[in-house]
Amino acid sequence: MSSMQLRTLTFAVSMVVAGAGVAQEAGGRTRFILAASWQPAFCQTNQKKAECASQTGERPDATNFSLHGLWPMRQDYCGVSAEQKAADKDGDWNKLPEVTLAAETKTALAKAMPGTQSGLERHEWVKHGTCTKMSADDYFGVGMHLVGALNASAVRDLFAANIGKPVKAEAIKAAFDKSFGPGAGDRVKMSCRRAGNVRMISELTIGLSEAAGTASAKSAGLADLIQGAGKTSFGCDEGVVDAAGF
């Protein structure tokens, strides 16, 4: 191979590598997941949980998404003792340490995360929150801010307008694109669960960029965080938007 050919080949390889880097940067990488539950569907198969036994059609979680959690990718139980980890995996969340929160945060969290009635916030903090550099107040503050943005969007409007009816993946993805920009729906996964012979939408897990892991995300736009994440498959293709009650 001549020196001219070698230089040409080297240049071509460098351009391919550079192009791949640009493509990866443009696509972004998912560093966090916002998990938003449709609580009535969750409660169909968890009727004995405190937050399900107490659910009413007038409570916010009957017509809004509830905060399940904010999860760092590929990290959990950071600096957690073996005893706490075992208790968490056993589902005995009331044996976990109480999460110290400001009174204002605690009140807001009880509304945004009905699962606090079963100690869900203890589980979320031990398994996921400990792997962020945020305080508990900031960690839950970010999660509440982001689920609030979801509830102020066309996605929540679509769900609220179709309670008791089936909704297709295409409609949900279109609602994400409408509220959070083109391609936002490609960064969402939907989970469904069966109750009897009905397949219900139980949760949306939304990919977010690394910026979701800082306290400043309490004032960040959800659209920017979604657009900075990588794409994923949507999962469940259709499900019923369940109504509160059994």
TrEMBL record:
Region forming the signal peptide: none
Domain of life: Bacteria
Keyword NADP: no
Record-listed E.C. numbers: 4.6.1.19
Keywords: Lyase
A Pfam family hit: Ribonuclease_T2
CDD domains: RNase_T2_prok
Gene Ontology BP terms: RNA catabolic process
GO molecular function, one term: RNA binding
Family, similarity comment: Belongs to the RNase T2 family.
Protein name: Ribonuclease T2
UniProt source species: Rhizobium esperanzae
Phylogenetic classification of the source organism: Bacteria, Pseudomonadati, Pseudomonadota, Alphaproteobacteria, Hyphomicrobiales
